[in-house]
Amino acid sequence: MTRVPKIIIIGGGPAGLMTATQLCDLEADITIVDHKPAVGRKFLVAGEGGFNLTHSEPLASFIQKYDRQLIQDWVTQFTPDDFRSWLKTIGIETYIGSSGKVFPVEGTKPIEVLNAWLKHLKKASINWQLKSELIDFDAKTVRIQSKTGIQELSYDFLVFALGGASWKKTGSDGAWFDLFNKKEIPLVPFQSGNTGLELKESTWRKDFEGQFIKNCRLRIGELVVAGDLVITDYGLEGKPAYAVNRLLRNNNFRGLTIDFKPQLTLEKIETILRNSSKVKQAFAELKLSASIYNWMKEELSKDQFTNPALLAKQLKAFEIEVTGLRPLDEAISTVGGVSMDAIDSFGQLIQYENVFCCGEMLDWDAPTGGYLLQACVSSGYIVGKEIALRIE
Ligand SMILES: Cc1cc2nc3c(=O)[nH]c(=O)nc-3n(C[C@H](O)[C@H](O)[C@H](O)COP(=O)(O)OP(=O)(O)OC[C@H]3O[C@@H](n4cnc5c(N)ncnc54)[C@H](O)[C@@H]3O)c2cc1C
Fold first, then answer.
1. 380: Cβ below 6 Å to ligand 1?
2. 365 lines ligand 1 (CB under 6 A)
3. Which residues of 164-197 are buried (b: 16+ CB within 10 A; e: fewer)?
4. How far is the CA of 270 from the centre of ligand 1 (A)?
5. What global pTM score does this model have?
6. Structural domains of the chain sorted by starting position, each given as residue range(s) with its CATH number in brackets
């Protein structure tokens, strides 16, 4: 390319920022557009409840957490170790927690991580066009609405990193979906990912809201997830609940069972139930909480509740009646968005040359625990590297 190439990145979340990171040392005219007054809002929200930047598990099993081959390939090209090494270059040290999750070292606030990233980018002469919303684009120009009116910007490379459709207040409102739909870009409707489970109406939950069901195990099909659940007025929250979202969606919310006592065999539980004069006493001996006692009492028939063999069976594999997932806006992530069939192996839209998509706006799914941010930065890396290659 003989003149300085114009690159426009729309969306200043981790995916867009990582694209810019790969390009900021090149001779290019880069503009980052975001409709919020500041970038990285959802990145900061992610930081509020345990900031899992990525995960330390071996790459071979790490990539199995993604439902799309292309995301697996991208994460293989920019790995969790690469991400951690890069963070180190901007002064952010990380550590591996006891769960294997990777966090910024203790005392480092999420805003410090974001500021270190932005400081690194601000060394390059990037144009920051905030409070500016994408309203349209074609093969050569993009239209942006800001307070001062509509601007038409021409580009050589255009990157969309517009995020999913949850936590609208962070800017990820999914409003771009309609525009992309009009352009006939293949899309998949948004659905909640990594969100709480809504259960059928019941009375037992109201007395136990906020309490944990500790060390239980959820099973659906081949998937088994252990951990703690939290009881809410509408149902259940917590890591195991989020992890079963994908299979529940595919299974019309059927087939989810809970093992309240994975440490004990069916036979052992039955023996304890048989040797106790009262069910309540047996629950105490089994260290099963009052919430589980009340749940079982309400849902099981008298026969199931009082017969040790039948009750033991239920405690090992009680079928939870899930009625749905929590609404989109509450979800930690969303699935759906731009179909993986709409892009090539570099994230370029098949219908538009030199126009790319990355991050959560693409239709892929992964559990919480650092896998979401890792896929976003890996996809941003791939797009940035590809543009760099085309410029040079
Ligand atoms: C409560 C919560 C906790 C989380 N915790 C973790 C965690 O611990 N670990 C983890 O790995 N992940 C976590 N995540 C998920 C993670 O934050 C997201 O997957 C990630 O931020 C997505 O990055 P992105 O760059 O694709 O999009 P986003 O971060 O959503 O950024 C998209 C950007 O595009 C802008 N934008 C959107 N539409 C337009 C438009 N029309 N015009 C201009 N700009 C636009 C938005 O303002 C926004 O700045 C969490 C998410 C939530 C909600």
1. no
2. no
3. bbbbeebbbbbebbeebeeeebbbbebbbbbbbb
4. 48
5. 0.93
6. 6-192+331-391 (3.50.50.60), 197-325 (no CATH)
